[in-house]
Design goal:
15 strands, alpha/beta, 11 helices, seven-stranded mixed beta sheet, single chain, globular, 29% helix, 340 residues
Length: 340
Amino acid sequence: MVQTDFGGPTAVSLHDVPEPICGPRDVVVKVAYCGLNRLDLLQLKGPGLIPGFRLPHVPGMDFAGTVVATGSAVASVVPGDRVIADPTQGCGGCPRCAVGDRSYCVRPRVLGGNAPGGLAEYVLASAESVVQVPEALPLDAAVTLPTAFSAAWHAVHTVGRLAAGETLVVHAGASAVSLAAIALAKRAGASVVAFAGSEAKRDAARAAGADLVLPNGEPDAAKTVSLFTDGAGADLVVDHVGPDTWRTSLDCLGIRGRLVLTGNTSGDQVSFSLQEVFHRGLKLLGTGGYSSADFVAAMSACFADGLHLPTAARYPLADLAGAWDVLAARQTIGKVVIEP
């Protein structure tokens, strides 16, 4: 599916394109499933958000499939291997890429972001970005992992430093990243409080492992979290909503709590008391992009414990317009999956 314009679903249509050709350190993957992300929808509406984005463009950041060709320098995988990939590819040659910080590559290359992605029969990826999927994990489950669990691992572990026995608070508890964060926090031995907007979404947060689930806008949220933690308050809050949840995030934190900021879906500007932050010893932490080490660690954890997100809906490639509509409605729980 090739995006040739900005706007609605009709800006993307089915085309025949040349099959990708391997460079020495590349692999070609035959796509079995592709999972949609919010970025796909935002870049469909325009403008392109990833530096280097240009039309025509093949979307689709998360994919799972089978290796069908490898470059001459590739020894890590062979044709027939079942794989998923870190969509953040980088250039492979700059100082940031050299230390595994591909999110800040000077010439960023993101599959489905500014390079051809997984909404196709075949996709080209760097060999160092792919990992083999265990035989016990179906590919339609594996496709839910890369972006959501890498971002959640980075927020919860790399930046948030969540420890066993601590309490995590997450907003938008049935979103992909939040469901992943809940699962990873429980795996680490932490308690989890989640907020969600509907009973179905609250049920999804519970199913992921949340110990206490509250409605969005709960007026006594901070008091309830305080009671849940025996008066200590939360150790860590992961907030990718922004202004709508900002006050609740700060109020739920205990002394020396950490607020990890991962997004701004409800806006970009907030206000707060500097005195409150420094007197309570709060830490306000921006996540930035996850690293290649985060991707590997997150995938290893998921493979070891069989973690994955639920599939919200499944569509054939030719019916991508219907999938866009479902994703835009914000009522899905888990991943919308496309089958090329």
